[in-house]
Fold this protein.
Amino acid sequence: MSDVHGLDGTIADVYCIFLPGKMLYWTPVLVSSLHLIWINMERYISIMYPMFHHIYMTRKTVIKIMTVIWALGLLINFLLETTFRSVNGICNIGLGDALYYRWYVIIIIHVILEFFLPLIIFLGLNTRMYFKLKTQVFEMSEIDRNKKKDLSERDKNVEKATRNIFKLMVMMTFCYCTCYGFNMTYVSLWIAGIVKDITGMFFFKCFYSKSKAE
């Protein structure tokens, strides 16, 4: 935690909000997870509801959605970082139950939006797309066999897309869980009260635990 001895009270608080909490670092991290949710939803709509996607998924719509994602990421992190204050010359969570309660609630929101929700949506939507395309490939191959024809180029592309979705699900789940899984699971156990301290975790470098704040 940063030492702010020698700084004026207001200046010290501003310093604690923007620098030690690494708002400029954690905001893009959260936004990237929200982008992952949007990318999967857009892909899902394009496959499951192609006409709707063609009509409504315009450049203007995408710009609006990207703006909302960045605004949400900035707002969540700003509300989180403004719980930090200069406490006895050290940047830490501000004294008082209200600040700590806000910090605690936003930590829960952060963990859900950054790890659990993207993973659940990714697996759920891609599973549905996989079985949709797999069923389509089976139906097309049956038609082609009845006509004693080989698979058309379009049918081969759909079959290839089905395999690619399955590969993406395996690789993305492995990479995402490898990068985030341990820390996020540990923090979730701490939120649930099963683990008493997270001061040694990488996640803690931004989000201080209550025991340290006190």
